[in-house]
Design a protein that fits this description.
The complex is a heterodimer of chains A (118) and B (330). Chain A is mainly α. Chain A has three helices and no strands. Chain B is mainly alpha-helical. Chain B has a two-stranded antiparallel sheet with strand order 1-2. In chain B, a hairpin with a 2-residue loop joins β1 and β2. In chain B, α5 packs antiparallel against α9, α5 packs parallel to α13 and α9 packs antiparallel against α11. The longest helix of chain B has 38 residues. The termini of chain B are far apart. Classes of the chains: A mainly alpha (118), B mainly alpha (330). At the A-B interface, α1, α2 and α3 of A face α1, α2, α3, α4 and α5 of B.
């Protein structure tokens, strides 16, 4: 464990130090002359109206939900794939049924038009 | 010397050296991209800073450091500062499990040319790559600018949509290799016809397309479609914070290329030339492809992008798994 994960720990530390170093350096070196107009959100020179955080299409939530479903499928597939040689036919049938159930849901989503972006 | 202490010393030196080489490759990738794009578009590209403009990346880095560091008044300050760090760190730690050469002997010590060969290598890669989306999401939200928010939302939806096919595309290789360790996968591809690209051509195509989409590169660069969204999620970022986003983007490009090399083209294996040279050559071919595509292809429309990801790539990736599974049994 130590021999395998210690180098990754060192790498994360080095990269984090680099990232923080860059932030601090650019903060120290750059000139700071903020004016009111400069600190406004960029909107092509027009004064921004209202807050930027407004409602956005529900499609984005649907995509996120579908992602979770399929990502969990991937989590199941990985260990299955690694030992597939031992599982052989049993593994194929078992995973086939699992994916078939998922595909029913997938077709349902498609028919409902959840993925239609106008 | 105490073996544990020696191990720690070697590890620290190795990591620091590799990180610097990686940063060097990244900075010259920007140079190569500008030069190639220039020549493809019948321009010269950078040519004034040093011979052939070779010092351009260094000049860019210094310039970025000295630029004014703007934090918009309405922005959520803490999140605004954290966001670039959150996309920078994952992008630079992914390559930890990619082997880029065989063992070498330096100063009487045997050194593996990989930072760490963990037995869940591929899982590590996809886990860390997935973290990159947080930086973009937080940047889009924290800026409190309409362009940033739209860019961030688009980027998130795109990245998670393509991530499904991205992770599914390599399941076929896992089945053939029976291991998640990249070192094992490289060792299995010991001759030209044993490269996984010949056994898994469909997976290779899906992987490559999803890889380009995951890194937000053309023709999938909708998150920063400059004609409609200014610069997408990093519209409000200036100075080195902007630099960190672009370093992260290039790092992701290099990672995708390196992983494609390792999984499909036999990694560092090859005749005559030293392993590291083979690895860099194969990786450069992918990097060239990335730049070439950017110069050649127009951008997708958003509905086309989502449709392509969910209705073409996902079924294809599942089909690839099914075909592999059936062939392995017969």
């Amino acid at each position: 464990m130590f021999e395998q994960y210690f180098p990754i720990f060192v790498l994360v530390t080095v990269v984090t130090i680099m990232a923080l170093g860059m932030l601090v350096l650019s903060h120290l070196l750059g000139r700071k002359k903020g004016t009111k107009r400069k600190l406004m959100p960029y909107e092509c020179g027009i004064e921004p109206e209202e807050d930027a955080r407004q409602r956005f299409p529900v499609k984005f939530y649907l995509v996120a939900l579908m992602f979770i479903v399929f990502d969990i499928e991937v989590v199941f597939l990985y260990p299955w794939a690694v030992i597939y040689k031992q599982l052989a036919l049993f593994g194929l049938i078992e995973m086939g049924i699992f994916i078939l159930i998922l595909m029913v849901g997938y077709v349902y989503i498609l028919k409902k038009g959840a993925l239609k972006w106008e | 010397m105490n073996p544990t202490f020696l191990f720690i010393l070697i590890t620290v030196i190795k990591v620091v050296v590799i990180v610097h080489i990686f940063m060097f490759i990244l900075s010259y990738l920007t140079w190569a991209e500008r030069k190639l794009l220039g020549h493809i578009q019948a321009r010269l590209g950078p040519k004034n800073v040093g011979p052939f403009g070779l010092l351009q990346p260094i000049a860019d880095g210094i310039k970025l450091l000295f630029k004014e560091d703007i934090i918009p008044a309405q922005a959520n300050k803490i999140l605004f500062v954290i966001a670039p760090v959150l996309s920078f760190i994952p992008a630079l730690i992914v390559f930890a499990v990619i082997p880029f050469g065989d063992k070498v002997t330096l100063f009487g010590q045997e050194i593996d040319l990989i930072i760490s060969d963990i037995n869940v290598g591929l899982l590590y890669i996809f886990a860390i790559t997935a973290l990159g989306v947080y930086g973009i999401a937080i940047a889009g939200w924290a800026s409190n600018s309409k362009y940033s928010l739209l860019g961030g939302l688009r980027s998130m939806a795109q990245m998670i949509s393509y991530e499904v096919s991205y992770t599914l595309s390599i399941v076929g290789i896992l089945m053939l290799a029976g291991s998640l360790s990249l070192v094992d996968i490289v060792k299995m591809q010991d001759s030209f016809w044993h490269m996984f690209i010949f056994k898994q051509p469909l997976a290779f195509l899906i992987y490559l397309i999803c890889g380009i989409a995951e890194t937000n590169r053309a023709p999938f660069d909708l998150p920063e479609a400059e004609t409609e969204l200014v610069a997408g999620f990093h519209t409000e970022y200036s100075s080195m914070k902007f630099g960190m986003f672009s370093i992260a983007e290039y790092a992701n490009v290099v990672n995708v290329s390196a992983i494609a090399t390792t999984l499909f083209l036999g990694g560092w294996q090859g005749p005559y030339l030293p392993p590291v040279v083979w690895f860099l050559l194969k990786m450069s071919a992918f990097l060239f492809l990335f730049i070439w595509l950017r110069a050649t292809l127009p951008r997708f429309r958003y509905d086309q992008l989502m449709k392509f990801g969910w209705q073409v790539l996902l079924p294809l990736a599942l089909l690839n798994i099914l075909i592999t599974a059936v062939i392995m049994i017969i």
